[in-house]
Amino acid sequence: MNFKKFAFVLLIPMLLVLLAACGSDDANGESDSNSDSDSNSNSEELEGSVAIDGSGTVYPLMARLAEEYMINEQPGVSVEVSRAGTSAGFEKFLAENGTDFNDASRLIKEEEQAKADELGIDVKELKVALDGLTIVTHPDNDWATELTQEQVQGIFLGEYTNWSDIDSSWPDQPIQTYGPNENHGTYEFFYENILEEQDLVETIDLQQDYSTLVTLISQDENAIGFFGFGYYDSNKDSIQAVNIDFGDGPVEPSLDTIAEDGDYAGFTRPVFTYLNVGNAQEKPQVLDYAIYIMNNVNTFAGETGFAPIPEEEAQSLVEELEVLK
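^ thats the sequence. predicted structure below, dont judge the formating
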């Protein structure tokens, strides 16, 4: 081998090493960029568990956030989300060694706050989304497609027993009402805000499980029930929503109309998760997850059947949580 060939042979590996190094730098540059991005939300790898219970209405949103957090943010943290219902969840939350969060489809009650004070539990309210209470019927019901707010009240108070009591052209068939049971904040919201604290009709079929409610309504042509918009939105093939007339014409519940100052405002409500501040200060993964929720909740609200809250509200809560570090 002459000198030129020898030099060429030596040069190739050197170039390959240099290119590999450049490629590595590029890759690292991208990786560093991602790492920088990740480090904005996760300054360290965390371990441990986060316990959440409460509202079945809020469950789809919180379960989606938990899934995303465990896969893409903190694989070492286990986030367990259950759905006993708002009231039943508060019983688990307001207890010694209770849950870290309680999801709620209503505000915390005075007696629940009093119990928290008695136990020395500092509770922080986090508004996470907006839900539209949705009235649903069997898909073959082609008469009660639009109802006034007063007619909805009359149906669930038992003032109308047959459909023909509302409109003589409608079937002379008994109305069968359905809804979530007393464990759920949706029941309490309906009772307190829609029925103005008047008792529901005695014949109503109240259920703990929302999927059971969907099944029952989808099998009963004379059924009418209520729950959060998300359960209707994910079961449109088996039930239908009733448009509600709040005084200015019928309004279809949708992510475009559900808003505290929107067309569906009459049946719109905020939903929450409540944080045990002491647990957040003792367990870094709990505080990190709380901040993750408020930084990302609007990203996943729509796909789980909720309207987003104003971004400035979410970021204001992030700032308040950051202070707990």
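The first strand starts at residue 48 and ends at 54.
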